[in-house]
Amino acid sequence: MQNDAILTDDFGRKHNYLRISLIEKCNLRCTYCMPADGILLSPKKDIMTADEIYAIAKTFVNNGVDKIRLTGGEPLLRKDFLEIIAQLALLKTEISITTNGILIDKHIEVLKQNNVKKINLSLDTLVASKFQTITLRNQFEKVIDNLHLLLNNDFKIKINVVLIKGFNDNEIIDFIKLTELLPLSIRFIEFMPFAGNEWDKSKMVSQKEILDQVQNHFPESDLEKLEDDKNFTAREFKIKNYLGSFGIISSITNPFCDGCNRIRLTANGKIKNCLFSNSETDLLTAFRNGESIENLIGFSIRNKKKLRAGMNTFDDINNPVLNLNNRSMIAIGG
């Protein structure tokens, strides 16, 4: 029997979407995600095992979660990924993953066998040399090959593009043009501040700037606003007669907190009730001690702020005392 009240915060938001970070490691070094000097990894003993991931996820599902997304780091780096995905598939809930795409060809059959149909692919540029600049790895062709492999196997694909002014903001139209003949959803993400990613407001490309580029390139009559989902993070658009669509995740300039239904579980078993919050609740220690974790989950949800962990204004976001005490993105889980 489900107890939705545990996952409902003081503002009436029901959290039915659990994002689980499987690992803090990644095979890329994206500058907005991993600090230049790396991160201090949690000891292996502090990382959730496959059985612990399943048991904790089951508690969430029993209380109303019906969507699970696996993130990282790079989730496909987990040596026991097959075991994890097979166990989670037993929960009969929607499972999706966020990946950089490098290891997709080695795991695609496992994903298909366990009914994973939705993949978010992180790809910030369509230029091979710029890919190496931002990721510090020469894997562009591999990612593109695996993108087409996913499409050929009928996966539903969203491409996550973190926009950084002066780096890839001149590729907005190129990304949108991908959707003319491919059933892709491109999601442009405003650059967000996390520990070690050298965030500066001057590097951020806002929702308005994105739409200005689109409207300057395409006839006004060709830009169609799509209906947003109830718990949307991206405001969705498409170009008339294009096969795919694009969306804008405007966490900084136009946040979507009113409909937020997400809760994050880090690889070392702590839940974060907001991506921007540095507050965490340790579930793994309680679970290992044989204690019920439901009260801890409820406590975390009830303490969720109305807007961006209490950072209500752009000045708050721009305040390093507030926004850089958080984990780095790689340690949170994308």
UniProtKB/TrEMBL annotation:
<dbReference type="InterPro" id="IPR010505">
    <property type="entry name" value="MoaA_twitch"/>
</dbReference>
<keyword id="KW-0547">Nucleotide-binding</keyword>
<dbReference type="Pfam" id="PF06463">
    <property type="entry name" value="Mob_synth_C"/>
</dbReference>
<keyword id="KW-0479">Metal-binding</keyword>
<dbReference type="GO" id="GO:0061799">
    <property type="term" value="F:cyclic pyranopterin monophosphate synthase activity"/>
</dbReference>
<dbReference type="InterPro" id="IPR058240">
    <property type="entry name" value="rSAM_sf"/>
</dbReference>
<keyword id="KW-0408">Iron</keyword>
<protein>
    <recommendedName>
        <fullName>GTP 3',8-cyclase</fullName>
        <ecNumber>4.1.99.22</ecNumber>
    </recommendedName>
</protein>
<dbReference type="GO" id="GO:0046872">
    <property type="term" value="F:metal ion binding"/>
</dbReference>
<feature type="domain" description="Radical SAM core">
    <location>
        <begin position="10"/>
        <end position="221"/>
    </location>
</feature>
<dbReference type="InterPro" id="IPR006638">
    <property type="entry name" value="Elp3/MiaA/NifB-like_rSAM"/>
</dbReference>
<keyword id="KW-0342">GTP-binding</keyword>
<dbReference type="GO" id="GO:0061798">
    <property type="term" value="F:GTP 3',8'-cyclase activity"/>
</dbReference>
<dbReference type="InterPro" id="IPR007197">
    <property type="entry name" value="rSAM"/>
</dbReference>
<dbReference type="InterPro" id="IPR013483">
    <property type="entry name" value="MoaA"/>
</dbReference>
<keyword id="KW-0456">Lyase</keyword>
<dbReference type="GO" id="GO:0006777">
    <property type="term" value="P:Mo-molybdopterin cofactor biosynthetic process"/>
</dbReference>
<dbReference type="GO" id="GO:0051539">
    <property type="term" value="F:4 iron, 4 sulfur cluster binding"/>
</dbReference>
<dbReference type="InterPro" id="IPR050105">
    <property type="entry name" value="MoCo_biosynth_MoaA/MoaC"/>
</dbReference>
<keyword id="KW-0949">S-adenosyl-L-methionine</keyword>
<keyword id="KW-0004">4Fe-4S</keyword>
<dbReference type="InterPro" id="IPR013785">
    <property type="entry name" value="Aldolase_TIM"/>
</dbReference>
<keyword id="KW-0501">Molybdenum cofactor biosynthesis</keyword>
<dbReference type="InterPro" id="IPR000385">
    <property type="entry name" value="MoaA_NifB_PqqE_Fe-S-bd_CS"/>
</dbReference>
<keyword id="KW-0411">Iron-sulfur</keyword>
<dbReference type="GO" id="GO:0005525">
    <property type="term" value="F:GTP binding"/>
</dbReference>
<dbReference type="Pfam" id="PF04055">
    <property type="entry name" value="Radical_SAM"/>
</dbReference>
<dbReference type="InterPro" id="IPR040064">
    <property type="entry name" value="MoaA-like"/>
</dbReference>
